[in-house]
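[Meeting: bench + compute handoff]

Bench side (C.D.) handed over the final construct sequence. Compute side (W.E.) agreed to return the predicted structure before the next meeting so the bench team could plan truncations. Sequence as handed over:
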Amino acid sequence: MKKHYLKSTGSVILLLIVFLQSCNLDDAIHVSPNGDDGASGSSNNPFKTLTRAQSEVRKRAQAMKKGTINVVLHEGIYNIVEPLVFSDKDRVNEAATVVWQAAKGEKPIVSGAQKFKVEGEIGELIKVGYADSDKLFDIYVNEKKSC
């Protein structure tokens, strides 16, 4: 009787493994600063920008009835020039969700920071040019807030 029980349990586990593999559990949308927005968004071919990932979420959400869409951000700095705006277009439905998360063990940084163009130096002072000075909030030099 024990052998029959173990044989049945082994068969169930094998079927479960085959089923889970066929479900493609890594159906997440992957993003990496080293990616390509023309890629598929898979773990091996991630998108480059958050905007492209958002477009893919919206595309998948239209056909989705329930479940979860995972967007996985990989290590690196994501420089954004315009805010990433979430609206009703990003909402799937009551039975489905969208989760934006860092890849396990990785620390992505989403930054709206802009680099200055150094125009010259006067002693210890550095003259920089920045076109949108009315949008300037904080200045950091060598990762320390300077003013």
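W.E. noted at the follow-up: Strands lie at 29-31, 67-73, 76-79, 96-102, 108-111, 117-122, 125-129, 140-141, 144-145. C.D. will use this when planning the next construct.
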